[in-house]
Write a structure and sequence with these properties.
479 residues, alpha+beta, 5-stranded mixed sheet, binds zinc ion
């Protein structure tokens, strides 16, 4: 259930402590928000969600903390960091004539750019930088419209004319990083390094690529260098996390399959590691075919003994799994993959797919709705409560579930999980998985989830909510 990017979406609440979970053994755990869901109590911490059986919990103490939540931004990476676009990118776009001619009236002027390309290919004086600048302007336009693949394509075309331009290489690398294509990004950065060995941007992005590839010591090295060249709060934060990982994983063993890089301490059972990899591979294939998407790089998975987990994630010892770009799973005492662990892996892995597929644009309700559905959950007995809320107009509009759930009360968050599942279940009952995938693709391109729902299902949130209520009534019965 854990979603560190949902925490990343709510950066402003970092440090705001709202609820205390009081355990029957007297231990008190302070979390940002605690909610009850079925037979579990779920607490949100800065490190992600934790879940524990209700039977362990004496009570939850709520305190109200008014904190402004920030809105999701596109800067959160699938590795869980917030990294702004490199500052050097616009250097080439200063030619105002090219800028105006390459993109106007809300579209790229392909004819104009083709003419510049032709002149550059024919070796006309000064033509190569102009052609490169035009593609750069086009790349910026595509980026602004959410067409990241098209933007990367434009960057590549610009590089044909200025193959050693550091801003272009860095821009292309940034695009590939946003697409979670870390190996390709690293190739561009290696080229950039030859021309600009002391560029802080190159070092910063190289660290990101290495981290994405689960090369933690290399990531630490790059980010340390970036900090020497130009101190940067984003890098400082990423470096701190990578160093924590590096310390913990120093004596870890590693296992690898085509889709996963698994690290585990010697204390974990080797048989368990192999078992988890096998389970993940099965889930991977199924989720890939359901969502029609294959993450481009292996996904990092780390098995912790509970003590390490507490140190690294700063979550309590009994916490559930966490997904912050890498799947972090406490396995103390386990010798094989239980049914429950398998479902946790499936749920968390779905978040990884969604995060990468939509490049961080999937809103919380759709993230949690799909992850729960793929995990195998259905609305079931929760339908009555959801319908009660809907009929009394006491529910939370989907538009409000697009942003941080942090401001919700405990009951509100339980409702949010259940209603999100209900909406996804309804879409899948009335339409199809292919339509759901189309919605994901459309929202990745446009950044608007309701717009994506409207373009695929030909209905807005109001109709979708009504349909969900109708579906719940007819499926789970309530008069
Ligand atoms: Zn979740």
């Amino acid at each position: 259930m854990s979603l560190v990017w949902s925490i990343a979406l709510c950066g402003a609440v970092a440090g705001a402590r709202a609820d205390t979970i009081v355990l029957k053994n007297g231990r008190r755990i302070v979390v940002e928000r605690a909610t009850e869901s079925g037979d579990k109590v779920i607490g949100e911490t800065q490190a992600g969600e934790i879940s524990l059986p209700k039977s362990m919990v004496e009570r939850i103490e709520h305190t109200t903390v008014a904190t402004p939540a920030t809105v999701a931004t596109d800067r959160t990476t699938s590795a869980g960091f917030v990294i702004a676009p490199p500052s050097t990118q616009t250097e080439l776009m200063l030619d105002p004539e090219v800028a105006h001619a390459a993109v106007h009236d809300g579209a790229i002027d392909k004819v104009y750019i083709a003419r510049l390309d032709g002149a550059a290919v024919n070796g006309a004086p000064g033509a190569a930088p102009r052609a490169a600048a035009a593609h750069c302007v086009a790349a910026e336009f595509e980026t602004q419209n959410g067409n990241l693949s098209a933007a990367v394509d434009q960057e590549r075309q610009a590089l044909r004319f200025l193959p050693n331009s550091v801003p272009l290489l860095v821009g292309a690398a940034y695009g590939h990083l946003k697409l979670s294509e870390y190996s390709t990004a690293l190739e561009y950065l290696t080229r950039a390094k030859r021309t600009a060995p002391d560029s802080p941007d190159v070092a910063k992005l190289s660290g990101w690529a290495e981290y994405g590839l689960n090369h933690i010591p290399e990531a630490v090295q790059e980010w340390k260098r970036a900090q020497q060249l130009r101190p940067d709060p984003e890098v400082a934060k990423a470096l701190e996390k990578a160093e924590r990982d590096a310390r913990a994983e120093n004596d870890f063993r590693q296992g690898q399959t085509s889709h996963f890089v698994l690290r585990y301490s010697g204390a974990a059972q080797p048989g368990l590691a192999a078992d988890i990899l096998g389970t993940l591979e099965i889930h991977f294939e199924q989720i890939a075919s359901l969502l029609d998407y294959t993450p481009p790089e292996p996904i990092g998975v780390i098995l912790y003994t509970n003590e390490q987990f507490e140190d690294i994630t700063r979550a309590p010892a009994w916490a559930g799994a966490i997904n912050d770009g890498r799947l972090r799973i406490p396995v103390q005492g386990l010798t094989s993959v239980t049914q429950q662990l398998s479902l946790v892996l499936r749920h968390e892995l779905t978040h990884s797919f969604l995060q990468q597929k939509t490049r961080g644009r999937c809103p919380p309700w759709l993230h949690e709705g799909i992850a729960q559905w793929i995990e195998g959950r259905r609305v079931g007995p929760a339908a009555a409560g959801l319908l009660g809320a809907f009929d009394h107009q006491a529910g939370i509009p989907l538009a409000d579930l697009e942003v941080s759930w942090m401001r919700l009360s405990g009951t509100g968050a339980s409702y949010a999980y259940a209603w999100s599942l209900a909406v996804v279940e309804t879409i899948l009952a009335n339409h199809s998985m292919a339509d759901l995938v189309r919605i994901l693709d459309a929202l990745t391109a446009s950044g608007s989830t309701e717009g994506a729902v409207r373009s695929v299902l030909h209905e807005g949130y109001t109709e979708l909510e009504q349909q969900t209520a109708d579906y719940l009534r007819s499926t789970y019965g309530r008069n």
